[in-house]
Each structure stands twice: as structure tokens, then as C-alpha cells.
Amino acid sequence: MRQALSKLTAVFSAAIAGTLLFAGLASAHVTVKPSTSKPSAYETYTIKIPVEKDIPTVKVAIKVPAGVDFKNYQPVPGWKVETAKDNAGRITTVTWAAEGDNGIEPGQFQQFNFVAKNPDKDTTIAWDAYQYYKDGSIVEWTGDGGDSPHSVTTVSASGDAVPASDSGHDDHAAAASDNHASASTADQAASTETAAAPATSTAVQTSSESSTAQTVSIVLSAAALVASLAALWISILFVRRIIR
After folding, report:
1. For 89-131, how does the pLDDT look when each residue is reduced to its tens digit (9 = 90+)?
2. Does this model's pTM top 0.85?
3. How far apart are the first and last CA of the chain?
4. Residue 232 pLDDT
5. Mean pLDDT of 176-196
6. Which of 41, 80, 178, 217 could form a disulfide with 26 if both were Cys (CB 3.0 to 4.6 A apart)?
């Protein structure tokens, strides 16, 4: 009897672990919010970086999508910011690097805020991001779906898009003032940038592709849950036979 209960406990524990594993993979992504905004708006975006491994994340870089004008960023203690520009002076890549040894520890996440001006017309913009771990490994959040999708923001003037948090005439002037005040800082950071930042690319994806990635994640989690319940039911039947 004790042996049967031990087997049942082991199977049940494995089922729970499998469910949690798939649920974690489906949710722990590098994301950029908001997912909707208005054309020409000065939007405050937030990039969120969770740690999926048992080692710290020490750096994250994000490519600024074509048509998006990066303006300024919110400083975070313990992190330095570097920018890369193209020949026209447009910021194409922004990199946050930990000044200490550890950065973002396992089980933690970090958020960085920045202001960018959206394209003037309705479109979708994809945020390619690169997560650097302490052991030198890099996770590229650049896919249209799968295990490492990039975030997509829908820029639309229709009622489907949420009004930008920093849009409007007054906010436009404020953002322009902030950009002027931080211009020298951005130029300084660009001059000291290393070759580790990824190159510029154009990334425009449809909102349906983002929905596909979310659907795949939900299906994987549901499949793991079904498998866990099936394993539990089989174990119960097994114990009943032994008892009889």
C-alpha cells in the first residue's frame, strides 16, 4: 500500500511540475508595452525583462523599429544606457547594461521606460530585443511566434487603439524639451558603445502574428494540463487495482 502511494505521489508531482514548466514558458517573455497607441503620439513605452534561467541577466538591447523616433529614457540606478545611431543621426539601438556584477537575479524582473514618437500613419511596429546572460548566452526575442517572440505594438487612429499616455500638444512640447535636455547624454553614450549591440533592421509585423504566438503558448499550457490530469487519473486507477 505504501509503495502504491509513493508511486502515486511521484506521478502527481511530475504532472504538477510539467504544468508549471509549460505555463512559465508561455508567460516569461521580454515584452514592450503598451501594445496599442496612436499615430504621431509621444508614447511612454516600458520594456519588461524577466529572468528565465538560473543565472543573472546583465544586459538587454532593443532595436528601435523603422519609423519610430526614440526620444529619451528614464534613468535606473545601477544601469548604464548606450545608444547606436545610423548615418542620419537616428537612434537605432538602445542598450541597458548592469554596472554591477549580477544585474537581474533569477526569479526577478526589471523594467525600463523610454519615450518614442510613433509613425505618422496606421501600422504595426515590432520590437526586437536581445537578452544577455552572465554566462555569455544570448536570447533573441525576434521571432514572429514560437518560444521567443517579439512584442508588437499596433499604431492606429481608430477607436481600437488606446490613447497614448503622453500624446497631445502640451505633452509634445514636454517631450521635445526632455529630448533637448538629454541630447548630450545620448551622444556621449553613443560614442562609448561597444560592438555588442545588434545591427539595425526593419521589423514590421502584423497584429495577427502576435495573436498566433499567444495562441501557441495557450495551447501548449492546455496540453500540459490535460496530460497532467490524464497521468493523475491513470495513477488513481492503478492504486485502486492494487487495493482490490
Report:
1. 999 999 999 998 789 999 999 999 999 999 999 999 999 999 9
2. no
3. 11
4. 66
5. 43
6. 217
State whether 53 and 70 are in the same domain: yes
Q: Are 37 and 153 in contact (CB under 8 A)?
A: yes
User: 9 lies in which domain range?
Assistant: 2-24+217-243
Pull the grid cell for residue 166.
Answer: 503622453
Q: What torsion, rounded to 10 degrees, do the Cα atoms 139, 143, 149, 150 define? A: 90
Q: What is the pLDDT of residues 144-164, one digit of tens each?
A: 888 889 999 999 998 555 444
Order of strands, sheet of 31-33, starting from the edge strand that comes earlier in the sequence: 31-33, 42-50, 109-117, 69-73
User: Rounded to 5 degrees, what angle do the CA atoms 54, 55, 56 make?
Assistant: 130
What would the grid cell of residue 90 be? 537616428
Other C-beta atoms within 10 Å of 88: how many? 6
Q: Are residues 174 and 60 in the same domain?
A: yes
Q: Domain holding 81: CATH number?
A: 2.60.40.2230
* Contact of 151 with 126, CB cutoff 8 Å: yes
